[in-house]
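Onboarding guide, step 5: your first structure request.
Type a short instruction followed by the sequence, for example:

Predict the 3D structure of this protein.
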Amino acid sequence: MSAYADIRFYRINKQGQQYRNELVRNSAKTGCHSFAKARKVFRVAQVRFAYCEVYSSRRCEPNSILGARWTGKRGNKGDRDGLVTQLTPGAMWVLAEKANVKVRSWRCEN
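The system replies with structure tokens like these:
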């Protein structure tokens, strides 16, 4: 497990293979951060933040927040049921079923 907080974004190709979006600036910092241009994202992973949120527009505009579904093991965590906007620590947050979604910004908080 990482000793530092981090958020990671993954895309998926037509064969179902997932690739990490590299060169994500400020991925270990709290607050709102924008990509220079939209990134195609299928899955989000985050560690050591209380929660993260992803947005379809720049500057984390509240009306553009994207929902995700937890696809990993359920356990006892009720914060992972259904479509949620606050992504708690974990690596299996999927934005869309077998498709990429355009993400322009994200916010992570401790």
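Each response can be followed by summary notes, for example: The chain has one domain: 6-109.
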